[in-house]
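Researcher: We're teaching a course module on how sequence relates to structure. For the next exercise, students receive a sequence and then see the predicted structure as tokens, so they can try to spot secondary structure elements on their own. Here is the exercise chain.
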Amino acid sequence: MKKLQVISFVSGVILVLFSLASCASLQQDVYTYTEENTFIYSSIEEYEERFINIDVKYQLENAAPSSEINGLLKDIAAYKASTKVTEPALIARLRAFEGLLYKMSGRKRESEAAWTEAKTQQKGDRYVLLLGSRLAKNEEESLSQIEGILKYDSKNAVLQLEKGKLLYQQKKYDQAISVIDNAFVLFDNEGHNIYRTVYNPLRSYIWDLNEIYGSEAESDAKHNLSELQGNLTLDSLVTLTLENTSLLDNYRPANQKQNSRQKQQAFITTLERGGYFSSSADQKNEAGSSAFMTGAGDMTRKMCARFIWNAYIRKSGNLKMLSRYSEKYKKSGRTKSPVADISVEDADFDAVLGVVESEFMELPDGKNFEPELPVTKLQFINWIKKADK
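Model: And here is the predicted structure for the students to work with:
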């Protein structure tokens, strides 16, 4: 019995030492190979920037931009041939880019071959590690792999960003935003502000999803999330308001939530006559101000503000509130607008101030309303739901 106990004890010690050695090896690999040499990588910064622009499209559209992928693969191959790259760090990074691009376009074998070669050159390169995580069997395994690396290399901005993307794919939107924001800070500290610029639309999209659906949204959401990224039109503005709010209940066709094209146009005409597309100064549309919206293609932020303010006030029944801000400014003699890019004389001054003060819409930079920016369907749902509370 004592002999067995001794053997068991020795075996246990060996296992512990092996485990510690493995952890130490991983820690050494990660720290050793992720220390970046700015000079070495400066010659391929162009490819990194092109890759992240492709990657964010892939994340948002859930489809590979084939022409851009093929173009970058071709240019990387030409660069390697013309410069005869021998530096292991560069070979690893370039092969990692190639492997990631292959993975996006469904060429798994070529992606795995690129990863095999890349990790023999520099297995701790952050893009090699990224490629390895994307070749995992599923999202859960990929996330587990990344979190294991981040325990030893918490400042790996590329993997922090990837963790945020994976949390987004798992519909854990609030967690995803937090992790992506942390990645942005890390990139900024490295002097790679381009990452914040390129990936900010994805971050904004996740933020809107979180505002509307909350964290861990149901998979059978009313809309296909990729469809909600499309730009808002007048038709979709009306449809989404009907589907997601009670703001138009007084006009809603009896026992009919969705209309044929013909009935939809008739309904839009009814709303136009009701003043929903008119400016506050032209409530009866005598000056034809509704044409600003009905004659447009994609809806802008200012158009949305006009409609939301009209719908909100008209549901309350107190139409005097439509022009409350302009009347107040006239009486006080004030001429300076609190919103930098919307003047007091603007036809939608009341609407913009109304939706901002009521916190239905926001000032993107805290000062400007950005009235001419196009709006996605998802953004509009977020705003219109707030106005319906």
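Model: If you want an answer key for the exercise: Residues 2-33 form the longest helix (32 residues). The chain has 18 helices and no strands.
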